[in-house]
Amino acid sequence: MNIEIISSVLIVLGAANGAPILAARILDERFARPVDGGRLAADGSPWLGPSKTWRGIGSAYLLAMPIALYLGFSLFTAFSLAGLSMCGDLASSFIKRRRGMLSSSRAIGLDQVPEAGLPILFLWTKADITVMEGVVIVMLFIAAEVLLSKVLFYLHIRKRPY
Fold it and tell me: Has residue 161 got a pLDDT over 70?
């Protein structure tokens, strides 16, 4: 098991998923345009919700890509890891809205698996990681996100402790 690749991927995923939270904290409501434009689906619920913004996606790229490049990933892989993590985040929000869950509500597993899983599937296709390393990354990502959420809340960076 390659600890270096596991830690590198976790750092990049952490940066991609933490950047929108930091951007929201620093910029408050500035540039917070919802990805779904505030539109509602046929069921009357938002497509994604107000917390999924273009600012968040942009900030994920701005933070995660340079970190990924520094850690030795290619430009294509850096771009893909950040983008796929954000796609996973949007997909989990879409599913949560269809299930009637409010924006920013907690769903352990659903909140983390797509965000880490899509980048892992990409890395598997490139043969950069093994299946076991991918599973370890997803499990560690879930644990880290749950633990760091509480820390970020107590530091007044997150609005909720999850």
Answer: no
